[in-house]
Write a structure and sequence with these properties.
Layout lengths: L1 H28 L7 H34 L15 H11 L5 E5 L6 H11 L5 E5 L19 H16 L20 H22 L15 H31 L5 E4 L2 E4 L7 H4 L1 H10 L4 E5 L7 H16 L8 E6 L9 H4 L2 E4 L9 H13 L10 H8 L5 H17 L7 H13 L1 H7 L5 H36 L5 H15 L5 E4 L2 E3 L1 H4 L2 H9 L4 E5 L5 E5 L3 H8 L5 H12 L2 H19 L4 H6 L9 H4 L2 H8 L21 H11 L13 H6 L14 H9 L5 H16 L4
Parallel strand pairs: 1-6, 1-7, 2-5, 5-6
Antiparallel strand pairs: 3-4, 8-9, 8-10, 10-11
Helix pairs in contact: 1-6, 1-7, 6-7, 12-13, 12-14, 14-15, 15-16, 17-22, 17-23, 18-21
Amino acid sequence: MHTYFYILLAAAITLFMLGILFNKIFQHLKKIKIKPHFKKVIQLTIEFLLVKSKKIVTWLNSKKQNLRENYFEDLSPTINLNDDGTYSNAIKWALENENINNIALTGPYGSGKSSILKKFQNDYKSYKYLNISLASFNEKLEKQEGNNPEPDIASNQLIELSILQQIFYKEKQSKLLHSRFKRIRNLKLSQLILLTLFWFLWLVSIIKLFKSNYLKSFSIWSNKPDLITATIKYSVLIIAVIGVVYLISLLIGILYNLKLTKINLKDGEFDLSKDDSSILNKHLDEILYFFEATKFNVVIIEDLDRFKEPEIFTKLRELNLLINSSKQISRHIVFIYAVKDDMFKDKSRTKFFDFIIPVIPVINTSNSVEKFLEKVEIINKHTADSNKLSEEFINDISLFIDDMRLLKNICNEFLIYKDKLNSIDLKYNSLMATIVYKNFYPDDFENLHINKGMVYDVFTNKNHAVELQINEIDKKINAISVKIKEIENISITDVKELRTIYIEMFLEKYPKAIAIRLEGNEYSFSQVKDDEIFKIFQKSDNIEYSYNDTYNRVMAASGPGFNEIEKSVNPNKSYAVRESYIKLKNDNGINELKLGLEKLQEEKRETKFWSLKKMIEESVEFPPQYDKIRKEKLLWYLLQEGYIDENYYDYISFFYEGGLSKIDKKFILSNKHREPLEFNLELNKIENIIKNLKPDDYKREAILNFSLLNFLAKNIRKYSSEYELVIIPFNIIKSIGMY
């Protein structure tokens, strides 16, 4: 109504002023002469505008080209859908079928339902579309599995309220003149001035019409030509009539929108209102009026399945039936729903919908790699060969991606991080891994910035896992050290001498024995010392022996097994261990043990600086804190392959020069990534570089740098250990002819 009023207002003011304005223009028009040089001015102005417009077009094209090179993609539904027309044909057939009122597009989340609907709207503009989207992620509204199956009235009311708001706020208020739903209007300054001017003129007009003598003293009403007087007279009449008509229509509208709910007759009261839990039912007359006043004939409803409330579908189906049955509305109106396949179980979905169109996902875990590689190929075009995103890495992480919007967003964020963090050389595989982690675990990524979350705990607790591993190595070191000490302290150096001790222990227990029987054969005690016979003696559980009785007859008897003899000789050390010690001592085995001890010591030193990837490769026993993150298959994969490592801060925050320069940081990263740089790279703050290096870092080829070596040589007293760690591998490399 207000729009029409402003049109009438402008017309009235125009009529009022034309009488005076035309008269003045007519009087001065004869005096105006168009001079020839004005043509030149107009020509130059046109040329200037053309030049500026060309520059603007060129600037817009450059911006468009930059976006194309960056390859950003929006996450909204696209009309550039790779569709052969199957979906569109199915939707069009259903819309033309008078028996179909409710259509469902069913498919998994991210399957492309929204893009199909957007493309259809773009291709078939003859239909009038009303789009309703309930993309709410409010946990209070989302129903959790296992909850009470009874419908949540409060949730349904909020959903219905959102639907109602989107219906009425879709259209301008000027097209819904009789709706009781009013909204705040933004009155521009020009409109306010026009409105004020009109009502001022209307007030003057009313005074002029009904109190004409009141303004006779003003010169404006006298001594004027007849044409101007007539124009003013009729303008006053028109303005007065328009104002009165507007006020009457405004009053009628107010009375029309009054809703009678109670009648109070002295002692009695009739309540005509009804408390209906359904907001859609309560405002059914408004909805019918909306479709009567507008031309919408296709209502598209998306994301309604997020709330797991089948009851709302029933109400919308009833609403559609009422709309199509109403004689107020003379056209066929169809509701199209974009829902997931699992919204309805068994046969129930065929009760809600008249036609169902299944949507095959654009990508899933089986084919996302092709889409991902297409985008990576564009990224790799502007990337050095040594730092390109590897196809193997993309193949692996693609197994976890099943949504096109997620895939686009990962690539978008990667491009932004790549450009913003380009002050230092980062490994793009690791950067992409960080972006994937950010998208799949946004809460944990956020916590990482404040030293919390799963990833932070993994690297924090890594030291504990390292300590456990070092404890195991210490046990081996202690065992070997004890073994070396025992071997060095043994007094028996001959194996047969050792065997004699065990035979003598047997004779001590059985002094009458004259021989030993093993496997049916009789051996003298001196024969038992031989290697093969003593092995049989060791395995005997019951040792048989011969002795002479009182009549000097040779008799047979059985005694204890070798185990009992062994314990009697030395309860702490078995014969086998003591024999091995003697052999080691005789064969210089102590040197081998000491060499093994040195290897364990070296392993212990290296273990202190193991990366998480190395620890996983070595099957280190992790503490219970790792059980949670092990269940996160994608995150654990990124960690165990080393794509997310101890240097994760370089991939989530800016680097500012201070203790290290960009070159210094680049050198440290190249060392940790085992990617050597040029030997003559000039380092700046070497002392700070050394503080950021660990002993294990000096053993890598990437540590070789002339600036670093010269600095260590000049300060060898302070950095003797670091100098040795560098110079030893350097000499090895030099000796094999690499330099």
